[in-house]
Amino acid sequence: MFPEPRDSPAVRSATMPETERTELTDHCPQYERAAEILGHRWTGLIVRSLLAGRTRFSEFTASIPGLSDRLLSERLKQLEAEGIVTRCVSSETPVRVDYRLTEKGEALAGVVDALVDWAERWVPDDGG
Question: Which helix (H) or strand (E) holds 117?
Answer without folding.
Answer: helix 109-122
